[in-house]
Amino acid sequence: MHYHEIAPVGGLSGSVASFWEFTAGADLPQGYMHVIPVDGCVSIAYIPRNPRFQGCAIVGPRLTSLRVPICAGDRFWGVRLLPGAARSIVGVSGRELFERHLPLREVAAALDQELYPAFVNAKDFEQIPSVTGKILEAHLKSHRPPDRNVARGISEILRSHGQSKIADICAIVGFSERQFLRLFRTEVGLSPKQFARICRLRAAAIDAVDGVSPSWGQIANEHGYADQSHLVREFTNFFGLTPTEFEKHCIEHISHGDIRRDV
After folding, report:
1. Is 190 exposed, middle or buried (0-12, 13-18, 19+ CB in 10 A)?
2. pLDDT tens digit string along 199-218?
3. Distance (Å, rounded) from C-alpha 193 to C-alpha 98?
4. Per-residue pLDDT tens over the stretch 121-131
5. DSSP for 218-253?
């Protein structure tokens, strides 16, 4: 299996995290369940030339990894929206999409009617940022941009890899914790603390994918976990996998090309 991303350019850089492609191997066993780790984003996905699926799917922010059945040779294309940016492109908030996995047409029929043919007619994944990017930019102009204060909070959480104190972030944006919590949960679909925990865990997981640390104990220490047991609990809670299981499923079985490492 292989996964890689292409970064957005131009007017989408403040709303889109990446365009992505995932390909299942030809030797995948029947009934294989693929684990999609949480990342705090909203993702729109399409399966090229597969008669089992019609239209695009949308996956909202989650607190547990999504498990989906895939078949040998399946190929997926999609776009990850930055946390808090769903309303600006899809027209619905992160809170409305929380823990939802459904056809895009059910929440944004007009967007699906434009994106689906663009995906269908693309000759290869390299065309996706161009052909779908134009559509996403047009919808971005028709909705209000992401909330500036939420975006500042998200940037700070990402900058610190989830280790910033929420009280400090509230001071930066000039909101009380109660005000910021309400606004952040509405736009992102998660609380600031939940999103921070996911960011810290994702940063630790990417270090494992990149092989930058020799052990899970060192990764735990470098990302501010109390000890390796704390890291194991976070992996189990959010990914539904222990670090060892994550290593087998997401590192040994999936080769990674270019991916965005900050979100």
Report:
1. buried
2. 999 999 999 999 877 899 99
3. 15
4. 999 999 999 99
5. HHHHHTT-SSHHHHHHHIIIIISS-HHHHIIIIIIS
